[in-house]
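REVIEWER CHECKLIST
Item 1: Sequence provided? yes
Item 2: Single chain? yes
Item 3: Sequence as submitted:
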Amino acid sequence: MSKEEFPSEKDLPQEDQEKQAKAAEADKAGVKDDKEEAAKPADVELDQLKAEVAALTQKNKDLEDKYLRSQAEIQNAQRRYSKERANLVKYESQRLGKDILSSVDNLERALQVKADDEASRQLKKGIEMTLEGLVRVLKDNGIEEIKADGEKFDPTLHQAVQSVPAENDEQKGHVVQVLQKGYVYKDRVLRPAMVVVAQ
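Item 4: Structure as written out by the authors:
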């Protein structure tokens, strides 16, 4: 084909040139619109993915927090269990010791009775030996008498059941008489000493 059959743009009338320019612009605009339309769904999808990632990240943080709290709770429960078990082992004789104290009191009261004849003196000697053995066994198992007579009154160790006027300033706030002995088991008070305190 020759140039004559396809005239150049210069040869086209002005009107045709404008039409051609508009058509070219329309083609460009159409391509641009297609790109924008294609870009819009991609942007929406990207926003959705970002939102999903943010939600999953938050969910992960929440699960991690719950996991750490659960671990801490388990460790606390194990510590409590170990402590309770250690206390059970440490204070296993507490109840038995408390029950035996009434027998110790009865033996001490029996020793306060006056022995007049040989038979009662022999009986008293047997009670003394029984009491000594019992006190030794209690001591070997961590149960000891609370020192009270002449000591400064301590409400954690002594139970004041009566008060009397003090003879001097040094005697004030001190125990002047023990009505019933008190006992401690390791670091616990089994029974406070019942005392009379000078005021």
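Item 5: Key structural point noted by reviewer: The longest helix spans residues 14-90.
Item 6: Recommendation: ____
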